[in-house]
Structure formats: C-alpha cells, structure tokens
C-alpha cells in the first residue's frame, strides 16, 4: 500500500498514460500549451514534477497575457474584415445600414458554422461522440469553462490522426476570438 501511495505522489496513476494526448509529443504538448494559456484547463494532463510545475507557472504568467493580446488581435482582424466587406457592399449596392447589418449577420452565421455547428461533426467522427456531446464540448471549450468531462484525443481505443490536435488547437484560438466578439456584441446590445 505504501508503494502505491508513493507511486501516486510521483505522478503515476492507475489509469496509466496510454492515450496519445498523454504523451508529451509535439501535438500533445501544443494542445497542453493552448489549454494552459487559454485558461481552459481540462485537468486531464498536468505536470507531475516540481520543475514541470514551476515551468508551467512561468509559462502561464507570460503566456496568458500574450494569448489575450493575440486573441484581441485576431478578433480585431475579424472585425476589420467584416467592416471592410460592409463598406464594399455599401459602395457597390449603395446600401447604408443594410450592408452593416447584413455583414454582421453573415459573420455571426459563418462563425456559428465554423466554430459551433460544424466541429461537432468532426468530434463525432474522431471521438465517437454524439452531435450533442460535440456541440457541448465546443461551447464548454470556447467559453473556457473546460470542465474536463469531454476532452479530445483521450480514448485509448481510438487512433487519432497526427493533425487532429493541432487543428483543434487552432480552432480553439480562432473560436475563442470569435466568441469574444459575439459576447462583446451581446454586452453592447444589453448596455
């Protein structure tokens, strides 16, 4: 019993480290980094040594503010793209308020498709989740709630493509920027 307790304190668990995400390969490390700096923190993968924990603290101290700057810039670029398209529509069709409303609606629908409605199809295929579970994972992830009840790449009975975690990591960054814009828009309406 004492050996089991010591092993647990050393970071060894009964579940082992059998999933592809649990390995500290490039994709797993990249996904861990994204979940740390976005403050999602699923809780499925964490450093088990004192040096690893200290590094994680330092990494987060610099990574979280830098990530906020990057998300702000991505969101700003998305907003500029929508505004540019609205200006072009106004010029071509001589619409005033209609162009802005149309572009905001298109940006909202496109974002809904790219970040909330289509990704659950990928998760259904790669994880074996239902569409509803994939949608739930999408929202819980992009809103940074990150309960950890659903995490990609954790089923040891499945083989995941090498690009999967990297694409999901990029989806998280762009999706968080888009969701932040939607939340900001909702706050502006409420005010």
How would you describe this protein?
- With 191 residues, the chain is mainly alpha-helical.
- The protein has a single domain (1-190), classed as Orthogonal Bundle (Helix Hairpins), CATH 1.10.287.
- The chain contains 7 helices and no strands.
- The chain has helices spanning 2-9, 26-37, 50-93, 97-117, 119-127, 131-142, 164-190.
- Helix 3 packs antiparallel against helix 4 (97-117), helix 4 (97-117) packs across helix 7 and helix 5 packs across helix 6.
- The longest helix has 44 residues, at 50-93.
- The model is unreliable at 16-21 (pLDDT under 50).
- GO terms for molecular function: outward rectifier potassium channel activity; potassium ion leak channel activity.
- It is found in: Membrane.
- This is KCNKH protein.
- Belongs to the two pore domain potassium channel (TC 1.A.1.8) family.
- InterPro entries: 2pore_dom_K_chnl (IPR003280), K_chnl_dom (IPR013099).
Keywords:
KCNKH protein; potassium ion leak channel activity; 191 residues; 7 helices; transport; elongated; mainly alpha; Helix Hairpins; 0% strand
Topology:
Elements: H1 2-9, H2 26-37, H3 50-93, H4 97-117, H5 119-127, H6 131-142, H7 164-190
